[in-house]
Amino acid sequence: MAEQLADLRVGLIGAGNIAHVHVAAWKALGARIVVYSVEGAESLAEQYGLEVAPSLDALLAEVEFVDIVTPSPTHKELALAAIAAGKDVICEKPLTLTAADSHEVLAAAEAAGVKVYPAHVVRYFPEYKAAYDAVQGGRIGAVAVARFFRQASSPAGAGWYRDVARSGGVIMDLMVHDLDQAQWLCGKVTSVYAVQNPPTVDGISPVNVSAHVTLTHESGAISLCRATWGVPGTPFRTGFHVAGASGVLKHTSGVDTGFVEELQKEANAAELLIPAAARGESPYLTQLRELAIGLRGGPEPRVLGVDGVAAVDLAEAARLSMESGKTIELNGAVA
Amino acid sequence: MKVAIASFAHTHAGSYAYLLGQMPDVEVLSADPDGAAAPDTGPRALRGAELAEKLGVPYVDSYDELFAWGPDAVVVTSENAGHRALVERAAAVGAHVLCEKPLATEVADGQAMLDACAEAGSILMIAYPVRFAPSYLRLRAMVEAGRLGDVFAVLGTNNGKIPYDARQWFTDATLAGGGALVDHTVHCADLIDGLTDGASAARVYAAANHVLHQDKGVQVETGGLVTITYDNGLLATIDCSWSVPDNGPTWGGVSLQVTGTNGSVEIEPFLPHVGGTDEKGEVFLGVGGNLDESLLATFLDAVRESGPPVPGKTPAVVPQPDGAVGLRTLQIVDAARRSAVSGQPVDL
User: Fold this and answer.
1) Contact B344 A246 (CB under 8 A)
2) Which of B214, B227, B261 is facing A214, going by the closest CB pair?
3) pLDDT tens digit string along A153-165?
4) C-alpha dihedral, B272 to B274 to B276 to B280, nearest 10°
5) How many CA atoms lie within 13 A of A285 on its CB side?
6) Closest CA relative to residue B258, chosen from B131, B149, B145
7) Residue ranges of the alpha helices (H) in chain B?
8) Nearest to A224 among B235, B239, B244 (CB)
9) pLDDT tens digits for A252-293?
10) GFO/IDH/MocA-like oxidoreductase domain: which residues (chain B) (predicted)?
11) Within 10 Å of residue B297's Cβ, how many Cβ atoms?
12) Contacting residues of B for A224, CB less than 8 Å apart
C-alpha cells in the first residue's frame, strides 16, 4: 500500500476547519500538498509546511487530484473546474446543494473519464462500519426499523450556515451523513417524509432546530433520521439503533468508550504527552487512504459518486416534503 | 371499598389483582368470562377462575354477577375492542373506572366512553403507568420550570418484545385495533401530552412494516415510526416497534428525548437495573419500582375523595391521565393507522 500511495500530489481547495483534519491525514500518508483558497491558504500552509498555489488553475496544473474542503455552495463549480482539467475529485459532503447540480457534476465526471468521491466520512467510523458489516453478514436478519441521530452545537448563530441557500440547512449540512447511512444500511429509498421545527422562514434557518425524516426503503425497511442544531455548547453526539428480524444493533457516541475520567482540577497541571496509538486511527485518515487507493487504480472505495448524489437527492426530497407537507415518492426518478 | 376487575385479557390484570389484594381496605372481585375462549396455551396463558385462584382474588363467572356486586370502582383490563362495553356498564352501575390503554380501538368508541362517564359522573382514568416514573416526574418538573427553554422536538421510543406467547389477541387486528402502532404509540404520546398540557396533534405521519416476527405468522404491523406535528408546532417522532428480540434480557423499555432551546433531557424509566450473565445469557434485574402501584394509588385516592358518582356532576378529583388524554392519544393512533395505509400524512 505504501508503494501504491507513493508521491501523492494532492490539491487541497479550501482552508477552513475541516482542512486541518484532511491535512493531517494527507501528511500521515506522506503526500505533497498544494493548497488553494480564497482565504486562509497562507496561514494553513505555514502551519503545516504546505505549498500555496496562486490560483485554481495553477493548483490544477500541479496536482494529480483535488480534495475540495470549501463551503458547500462552492463545491459544484470547483468540482466542474477540476473535472474540466481532467482531475479526479474528492469532495466534502454534501457533494453539491441541489440534486440537479450533483447529477450534473457526476455526469461531467463520467463524460471526462474522471472519478468523483464524496467524503461521507461516517462510513469510515469503526462503529458504523461494524454495524454495516454485521448487517451485511446477516447477523440481525433483514433490517426492519432503523434510527439514526446526530446533534451538534448550532453553527447557525451568525455566519453563513443560517442561510439555507448556502448551507442547505440542518438536513443538507448535518443529516446528510445519516441519510447516507440509512441508504447504506437499508438500501434504496422509495419515499421520504420530513418535518422540521421550527420551520425555515424566508430561507433563514432557526438557530435551534430539529428535523425528523422518515425513509421507506425498497427492501421493506423503514428508517428515521433525526438531526438537531442544538443550543450553542450542545455536545456533538451521534448514534443509531438498528432492529432486524433476528436482532438489534445500537450505538451512541461517547458511551461505552472504555475510558471514564473523573479527576479533580489541578491534580497535575503538567501537559500530558499522549502516545499517538492511544487515539487510534482517525476515520478521516482511513477514508482518505481508501479514496486515494481508489484513485490510484486500486479497489473502488466503499463510497462512490453515485452515493454522494443519492444523499443529496434524499436531502432535496426532504426539503420538498417539508414544503408540501406530503410524502415524496422516489420512483427511480431520483436516488 | 369494592373494586372489580373486569377481564384478565390484559397481562396487567395480574399486577392490579395482586396489588389490590394487598390493600387492607379494598375488597376485590374479578370476572373473566371470555378467558376460556382465548386461543393461548402454555404456562403464562392462564385465564378465568384458575388465574383468579392463583392470584388469590375472588372470582365470579359472569359480568352480570360482577356488576351486580355494586363495585365502587372497576378496573377494565379486557381486549382493547372490549373496553367500551365494560366501561359503559361500569358507569351505568355508578362505579368509577380505571381503563387499560389504549382507550378503545376506534375514536367513536372512545368518545362514547367519555360521554357515558361524564353523564354518570364517573371518573375515567387511563392506565398509563409511565406517567408515574420518577425520571418522568423529574423531567416534567424541569419542563414546567422552563429549564429546557422552549421545547421544540421530542423523540420517543417504546420498543418491546412482541406480546405474543401469553396473549395472542395483542396481534389480532380486530381485538387489539392493530399491531405495534396501537400497542406502543400511546405510551409516548401520553408522556408528551403530559409535558405539553394536552397539546393536540395537527398532523400525523406513520410508516409501518411487517419485517419483524414474520416467523410467527403475525398479520398486524410489527414495526412503525410515527411523526406528529402538534398544534403548538412541537415535532415528535415515536418508534413503536416490537423490536426487542425474543431472547432479549428484558421485555423492552421506553425512552423520551426532549429538546428545547436550552438543551435536552433524555429519560429511560426502565433502564435502572442490575446487569450480569447467567446460563441463559444476559441478566437484567430492573430496580425501577412498581409503577402500577403509584397508578392504582392515584386512582383509588381519587375514588375515595370523590365519593360515589353523581350523574351529570364532575367528580371532585379528576386523576390524570384522564379520559380526555386517552382520547387525544387514540386520535393519534387512529391517524397513524390511516397514514400507514395511505402513505401520506393525515391532518386532524
Assistant:
1) no
2) B227
3) 998 776 788 899 9
4) -80
5) 11
6) B149
7) 12-21, 48-55, 63-68, 83-92, 107-120, 134-144, 173-176, 180-196, 291-306, 323-342
8) B239
9) 999 888 888 888 776 666 777 777 777 789 999 999 999 999
10) 136-266
11) 14
12) 225, 237, 239
Identity of the residue numbered A105: V
**β-pair type (B59-60, A237-244):** unpaired
* Structure confidence by residue, pLDDT tens digits, B191-211: 999 999 999 999 999 999 999
**C-beta atoms of A214 and B234 within 8 A:** no
- Contacts (Cβ under 8 Å, ≥6 apart) of B122: B90, B91, B94, B95, B96, B97, B116, B309, B315
User: What DSSP character marks residue A289?
Assistant: H
List of residues 6+ apart from A281 with CB closer than 8 A:
none
The fold for domain B2-129 equals: Rossmann fold (3.40.50)
Verify whether the Cβ–Cβ distance A326 to B344 is below 8 Å: yes
Confidence at residue A266, expressed as pLDDT on a 0 to 100 scale: 65
Query: CA B66 to CA B225: how far, in whole Å?
Result: 40
Any idea where the domains of chain A sit in the sequence? 9-120, 123-258+306-329
Query: How far lies A277's CA from each of A20, A48, A273, A282, in Å?
Result: 20, 21, 12, 11
Sequence-distant (6+) residues with CB within 8 A of A278 are none
What pairs with residue B273 in β-bridges?
A: B286
User: What does each C-alpha distance from B8 to B31, B100, B124, B263 come to in angstroms?
Assistant: 8, 11, 19, 43
Q: Does domain B130-289+331-347 have CATH number 3.30.360.10?
A: yes
3-state secondary structure of A2: coil
C-alpha cell at A183: 441508504
Residue-wise pLDDT for A183-214, tens only, equals 999 999 999 999 999 999 999 999 999 999 99
Number of Cβ atoms within 10 Å of the Cβ of B54: 11
Q: What are the domain boundaries of chain B?
A: 2-129, 130-289+331-347
CB atoms within 10 A of CB B196: 17
> Which residues does B310 contact at the CB level (< 8 Å), separation at least 6?
B121
Is the omega angle on the peptide bond into residue B245 within 30 degrees of 0, that is, cis? no
Closest C-alpha to B75, from B125, B11, B25:
B125
Q: Angle at CA B106, nearest 5°, toward B104 and B110? A: 55
Topology classification of domain A9-120: Rossmann fold (3.40.50)
CATH class of A123-258+306-329: alpha beta
